[in-house]
Amino acid sequence: MSEDELDPLLNRRTYLTGIGATGAFAVMAGCLSDDDGDAGSGGNNGGSGGNGGTSSNGETDSSQGFESFPSYPFDDFDLLAFNELMPQRTDTLIDNNLNYAMETELDALEPRDEPAHGDAPMPIPEDEDEWVEPDTLQISYSAGEDAQAIFTEAFDPILENIEEETGIPAEFAVLDNPAAVVEAMRQGRIHAGTASAGTVPYLVNIGRGRPIATGVQDGLAGYRIFAIADVDDDDMQHLGDFAGKDIAHAHETSNSGHLAPLALFPDAEPHSLVPGEDYEIHFAGDHQSAARGILAGDYDGSPNASSSFGRAVLDGALDGADFRAVYISPMFLSNPTCLYHALAPDIQDGIRRAYLEYDYEGTVWDEMTEFNNFIEFDYATHHHAVLMIHRANDIQYDIEDI
Fold first, then answer.
1. What is the pLDDT of residues 62-89, one digit of tens each?
2. For residue 389, which of 1, 93, 170, 305 sits 20 to 30 Å off, Cα-Cα?
3. Contacts of 10 (CB under 8 A, 6+ apart)
């Protein structure tokens, strides 16, 4: 495919922004500081409480001269229309759940038959002799300390439903890191597992995983990029005002905090610019450090993962009223569950039912992760934005790059 035929998410300028060797493998498990955090966070039902209330016409009132903003639930999800209403205080966006993707937004995605980069998920083998029917199903979710501390107990209702639907005992498997998850699935040592947005293509291309479902809370899931600045910085009216400023990216191996802005900002509507050319990039280390650096006067702005930023606001670590957003990006879905491709078809069907046909509201899974249900995950369609970023960086899937 020629460069002119690339998806509208990207532009040839993406290839000219000086992405170095570190960028070549960067949208992957190294994004733990932003993307993996979605594993423990679902929808925001409470809001941050700082937007000044809702007007009688269903729009959010502004207390600092910002335009009125539509209130959730939206009659129609129009990302361009939302961006034309920027800037907005970030607590307004969080109160209206824009730190998450929405099922209506997912429904509006163009269906795709083939992934934009890399291989499609491997089909179930036609030869029955290649089918795997384990005595015990090994199921993982996330990796490292979070998996041990949070998900071991939280996963109990899902394991029970997997056992009910397959007739096979199921155990929760704790793995050290995303690379271990990919390698364990490649070897068939785990039979279902999850990964961050950037690592999912490694699970598909190396681990031979088949994505099936992702967690949601009342129709909300995933994350997006907020381009943020100090709430009192009236020079920051839209994304184009990042030009000529000191802008903090998270780190070189961050999806939402670095590589996604490199790919998305050159074609952002209604304003665009090229990171590294139109503004100087400073690496703050992580999203919260970037946000705090704005308040300290070290940086003028930052592309920040709405998941990490939203959690920090809801936890009280940051105040959403201290920041303005000048741009919000298309969404990314994180932590889809992938099945080992060679599992017998009836076992795969049973695991799918355990995820997709049960209501987890009120269970320990809901209480500890804030996900109360799962929705079907279509790899080529739902992961298109991430795959286009991988394509722009010519990522070749290698287990050593995780």
1. 456 798 999 988 888 888 999 999 999 9
2. 93
3. 263, 264, 266, 267, 388, 389, 391, 392
Instruction: Say which DSSP state 331 is in.
Output: P
User: DSSP label at 60?
Assistant: E
Give 305's DSSP letter.
E
Q: Which token pair is 204?
A: 């598909």
Distances (CA, A) of 90 to 99, 227, 327: 9, 10, 10
Query: Within this chain, do residues 231 and 323 fall inside the same structural domain, yes or no?
Result: yes
Can you read off the two tokens belonging to residue 56?
């009688």
Tokens encoding 270:
């209604």
Domain that holds residue 63: 3-33+45-98+225-328
* Domain boundary residue, one of 275, 297, 328: 328
Q: What is the pTM of this model?
A: 0.79
**293 CB-near residues (< 8 Å, 6+ apart):** 248, 284, 299, 302
Name 220's bridge partners. 102, 217
